[in-house]
Write a structure and sequence with these properties.
41% helix, Arc Repressor Mutant, subunit A, globular, 4-stranded antiparallel sheet, Rossmann fold, 228 residues, alpha/beta, 2 domains
């Protein structure tokens, strides 16, 4: 049996109840809330291993809820459920902190596969992997980027991607390899998501001019660290 606590925010009573019953039948402890405000209150009270949020939830929409959850816990994985499928909506979802995105209608089996994949990707490593990165120290186990003046809490995706870059310092990190390692699929939406996270990592590292992440056209990315 699978284990894990899931926060499910879905305003469609019938769909929400169906999803909750399915997740419980699959071994998860699923808590259903009907709007974003109730979802946030629940998240503040309880510890969850994953959040499934309907973007169009009332009172507080899924984008807003995801951002507020990310402030409280930058690591918990988030899957968006939505009737929207436009590219901009997908990018907005990833900017808000989504780990995955499922467009209605979807099958229960597909949702379960997405949940299992996200939980596998975000499982904590028992290794204590640290990297010296210019003026930064990156602890990929604790998902911390440490500078003399500040400590940045990274999301799971940011940490996973930065770890791959560090493992390929001054070498090309192949785009498809990174996508399949972290997202398990190199489709268009995942590729756009990775671009968003590369931009976020660049901003985190901006205080140290000796560090660059460059695009290598047609291939991927290269983390360049000037050893000076």
């Amino acid at each position: 049996m699978k284990t894990g606590r899931i926060l499910l925010v879905e305003d469609d009573v019938n769909l929400g109840s169906l999803l909750r019953e399915y997740l419980i039948a699959k071994g998860f402890d699923a808590q259903l809330e009907a709007d974003g405000e109730k979802g946030l209150r629940a998240f503040k009270k309880e510890a969850f291993d994953l959040c499934i949020l309907d973007i169009m939830s009332p009172i507080k929409d899924g984008y807003t809820l995801a951002r507020e959850i990310r402030i409280l816990n930058p690591e918990v994985p988030i899957i968006f459920l939505t009737a929207k499928s436009a590219k901009k909506d997908v990018l907005d979802g990833f900017h808000a902190g989504a780990d995955d995105y499922l467009t209605k209608p979807f099958s229960m089996e597909e949702l379960l596969m997405r949940i299992e994949a996200v939980l596998r990707r975000t499982a904590r490593s028992t290794e204590n992997d640290t990297f010296s990165l210019g003026h930064f120290l990156f602890d990929s186990n604790k998902q911390l980027l440490i500078h003399s003046e500040k400590t940045i809490n990274l999301t799971t995706k940011e940490s996973d991607l930065l770890k791959l870059l560090c493992q390929h310092t001054n070498q090309v990190l192949e785009r498809n390899y990174a996508l399949k390692s972290i997202w398990k699929d190199d489709n268009y939406f995942n590729a756009r998501s990775m671009d968003v996270y590369i931009t976020k990592i660049r901003k985190h590292l901006a205080d140290d001019p000796s560090i660059q992440i460059i695009n290598v056209h047609g291939k991927g990315y290269k983390l360049i660290v000037d050893q000076g």
